[in-house]
């Protein structure tokens, strides 16, 4: 799908911001101090429940803004999730006052912000639908199939966070997939060998 909400044309409206890989850009309880437009790198947005289980909600890529940040700015409420830099993030930080001014006075900015907002809400709905699927093996199979054949530099804990489930469950399921010849496990890596087989399994009703 072609992205139609690239906000980088508004880079002159804010100040440059650089965050190193792994930096925490916001956490629950923080107030939103700026509307960020990512120019390069990505921001991983995730939420952790009271039991300590984490699920990745979405990633903010180049040209994107963060729907959680937009929500905080519009509602004047604090963040409810975490945002971490993946790779070195170069972004533009637009102050809350300037953001509200642009939103009120610039129809194109308003359209781009809300078009991106709507697309992200659709992604979040898909995440919720996936979480309501009780069979982790089917969810994991679909998740791996969507990444295609090749090596993933991810630990099993990171995969568990992507799916919002326990590492032990992911570990058992991955081992069963390896036995079937669909993947190969390594230290801090996993390689998808048969994306079609995973997809067929994941789409079982």
SSE topology sketch:
Layout: E1 15-19, E2 24-26, E3 35-48, E4 54-60, H1 67-75, E5 82-94, H2 96-105, H3 107-131, H4 136-147, E6 150-152, H5 156-163, H6 167-179, E7 183-186, E8 189-192, H7 195-202
Antiparallel strand pairs: 1-5, 2-5, 3-4, 3-5, 6-8, 7-8
Helix pairs in contact: 2-3, 4-6, 4-7, 5-6
Features:
205 residues; alpha+beta; Jelly Rolls; Arc Repressor Mutant, subunit A; 2 domains; five-stranded antiparallel beta sheet; three-stranded antiparallel beta sheet; 26% strand
Task: Tell me what you see in this structure.
This protein has about 200 residues and is an alpha+beta fold. It has 2 domains: about 10-130, Jelly Rolls, CATH 2.60.120.10; about 135-200, Orthogonal Bundle (Arc Repressor Mutant, subunit A), CATH 1.10.10.10. It is about 40% helix and about 25% strand. It is built from 7 helices and 8 strands; from the N terminus they run ββββαβαααβααββα. It has helices at about 65-75, 95-105, 105-130, 135-145, 155-165, 165-180, 195-200; strands spanning about 15-20, 25, 35-50, 55-60, 80-95, 150, 185, 190. Strands 1, 2, 3, 4 and 5 form a 5-stranded antiparallel beta sheet that branches. Strands 6-8-7 form a 3-stranded antiparallel beta sheet. Strand 3 (about 35-50) and strand 4 (about 55-60) form a beta hairpin. Helix 4 (about 135-145) crosses helix 6. It is elongated and about 60 Å long. The mean pLDDT is about 90. One of its GO terms (cellular component) is cytosol. One of its GO terms (molecular function) is DNA-binding transcription factor activity. It comes from Actibacterium mucosum KCTC 23349. InterPro entries: cNMP-bd_dom, cNMP-bd_dom_sf, Env_Response_Regulators, HTH_CRP, RmlC-like_jellyroll, WH-like_DNA-bd_sf, WH_DNA-bd_sf.
